[in-house]
């Protein structure tokens, strides 16, 4: 099976200007999925920046303050981690909705994007979010030639 048929890809946060504000992703709806791999891509991080990433969950996305931190998901991003990707993999969350949170303080850091890869679909094929994914192709044993 092709991996793209077993995943659902969603861009949950676009590039942010360098700054010190907290970035909260859009909700990741886990209905129909067992797990999600959240990829947080950083750009430039200024020396001395204090940056962390974490995940939160909620049973009701309509209530903003219903989200709570997930134990053990916090990671510290060093000010030397320019252009690196940080991953949070959550399998069988206890509640339906998840969000990624990037907290920045003291110095500027740039988040290039946050992408969620939902997996373990209960019904296949998994479907990408057409509002955030511009195209997807599957190739099986392609021959060489002009792309």
Q: Rg, please?
A: 17 Å
Helix percent band? under 10%
Largest sheet: 6 strands, antiparallel
Decide which structural class fits the backbone.
mainly beta
What's the level 1 CATH class? Answer: Mainly Beta
Based on the structure given, which CATH architecture is correct?
Answer: Sandwich
Give the SSE layout:
Layout: E1 7-13, E2 23-24, E3 28-29, E4 35-45, E5 50-58, E6 68-69, E7 75-77, E8 85-91, E9 97-105, E10 109-119
Provide an overview of this structure:
The protein is an all-beta fold and 147 residues long. The protein has one domain: Jelly Rolls. Helix content is 0%, strand content 43%. It has no helices and ten strands. Strands 2, 3, 5, 6, 7 and 9 form a six-stranded antiparallel β-sheet that branches. A four-stranded antiparallel β-sheet has the order 1-10-4-8, with no helix packed on it. The protein is globular and about 50 Å long. The model has no long low-confidence stretch (mean pLDDT 90).
Name some characteristics of this structure:
147 residues, mainly beta, Jelly Rolls, 6-stranded antiparallel β-sheet, 10 strands, globular
Short description:
This protein is mostly beta strands and 147 residues long. The protein has no helices and ten strands.
């Amino acid at each position: 099976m092709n991996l793209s048929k077993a995943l659902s890809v969603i861009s949950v946060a676009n590039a942010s200007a360098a700054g010190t504000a907290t970035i909260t992703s859009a909700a990741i709806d886990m209905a129909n999925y067992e797990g999600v791999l959240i990829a947080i891509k950083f750009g430039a991080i200024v020396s001395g920046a204090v940056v962390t990433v974490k995940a939160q969950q909620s049973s009701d996305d309509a209530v903003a303050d219903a989200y709570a931190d997930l134990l053990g998901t916090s990671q510290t991003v060093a000010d030397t981690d320019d252009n690196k990707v940080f991953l949070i993999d959550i399998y069988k969350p206890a509640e339906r909705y998840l969000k990624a949170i990037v907290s920045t303080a003291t110095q500027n850091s740039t988040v290039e994007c946050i992408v969620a890869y939902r997996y373990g679909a209960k019904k296949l094929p998994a479907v990408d979010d057409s509002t955030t994914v511009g195209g997807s192709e599957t190739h099986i044993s392609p021959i060489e030639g002009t792309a």
